[in-house]
Amino acid sequence: xxxxxxxxxxxxxxxxxxxxxxxxxxxxxxxxxxxxxxxxxxxxxxxxxxxxxxxxxxxxxxxxxxxxxxxxxxxxxxxxxxxxxxxxxxxxxxxxxxxxxxxxxxxxxxxxxxxxxxxxxxxxxxxxxxxxxxxxxxxxxxxxxxxxxxxxxxxxxxxxxxxxxxxxxxxxxxxxxxxxxxxxxxxxxxxxxxxxxxxxxxxxxxxxxxxxxxxxxxxxxxxxxxxxxxxx
Amino acid sequence: xxxxxxxxxxxxxxxxxxxxxxxxxxxxxxxxxxxxxxxxxxxxxxxxxxxxxxxxxxxxxxxxxxxxxxxxxxxxxxxxxxxxxxxxxxxxxxxxxxxxxxxxxxxxxxxxxxxxxxxxxxxxxxxxxxxxxxxxxxxxxxxxxxxxxxxxxxxxxxxxxxxxxxxxxxxxxxxxxxxxxxxxxxxxxxxxxxxxxxxxxxxxxxxxxxxxxxxxxxxxxxxxxxxxx
Lengths: 232, 229
Fold this sequence. Notes:
The structure holds 2 protein chains of 2 kinds.
Chain A: H1 2-22, H2 46-74, H3 81-107, H4 132-158, H5 183-231
Chain B: H1 2-25, H2 29-39, H3 60-85, H4 92-118, H5 147-172, H6 175-206, H7 213-228
GO molecular function (chain B): ferric iron binding; ferrous iron binding
InterPro entries (chain B): Ferritin (IPR001519), Ferritin-like (IPR012347), Ferritin-like_diiron (IPR009040), Ferritin-like_SF (IPR009078), Ferritin_DPS_dom (IPR008331)
Keywords (chain B): Iron, Iron storage, Metal-binding, Signal
């Protein structure tokens, strides 16, 4: 359907643009008509929306911290290309998580306003690490805290009246927040996000375990070898 | 007499050359290593054993700033994409265009970091100049844009990124770094800017009717198909 559709579209565009050339004195009309759509179908409640919006920043802060780790291990004096590659990958994954959360909210009819507040200048938590194992340990802490945040969102979206800040559970825009159990979002976060979190945490814990055992007596060669393993 | 003068001249040249060799050897990694090896010291001041050469080091601050600008722009494009992805705006073509620009800025930031560290530099995440792109003195950037405004904003952003690359190129005077900037950034900028300018010209001429809803719809379809291909 797409080639036929595209050619029809191009034809129509051509027809319109020729008519546009003949009437080039006409003013620009940038404001388009807005559609009249019922809001009934937009059912996410405020405390839940707020928790999801916060999570986007949490994911991006993690992403920036991983990016700083990648930059650190790329340095000529540090020279751990395996660690750097691992953390570049993690930085991309966290950014993808933030985008997935945005896409979910768009699907549910959210994010039609206050877009500018969505991303609040995320910066790395730290920018230098003493060793590969110390960075991996911080990565595990970071993932653990992300997991806890997601669990909190699940709790709030399942039962919005449990929102810690009482102001959050007050309905704005007349949206009733109490007792709206957001089954679909909870299932999505549990199935997609928590699943990945727990598997990622296990992987990090395993890496730390292997590396940390070697560090005490064979620090230099242990980290060197493990870096090459990460590169493979 | 003439012979004596010549001898003195030769002796002078030799003396100067050997003095230079001594001074220069202090810039060698080998020099650092042989000192610390013979002294048997634990950790030497191996200040020359690094990847630094040429003039790239003189623009590392600007490079850090360039990385940070790319990160900021990447997030801004992501928000523009988000706006056009909402059910109210519902322009999948624009959503996709800005998402691609966001991904590109993000990947460029990583690529720059890799190149900085290749040249013995260090990425400084704190070094960032003020965002000069926001209109006038408005502190807060608005993302609820109309379609044509979105294209205009993107065109401005891409031009400012191109200009920053030119300034870096001018200042660095390092052939390797400049070659990298040309190949990885400057060439691509020309294409992106030309594409965006073309889109802006098209959409402008299409928006001159009393109601541009149909034109913008068709243009968005065209964008989506083009970017999906």
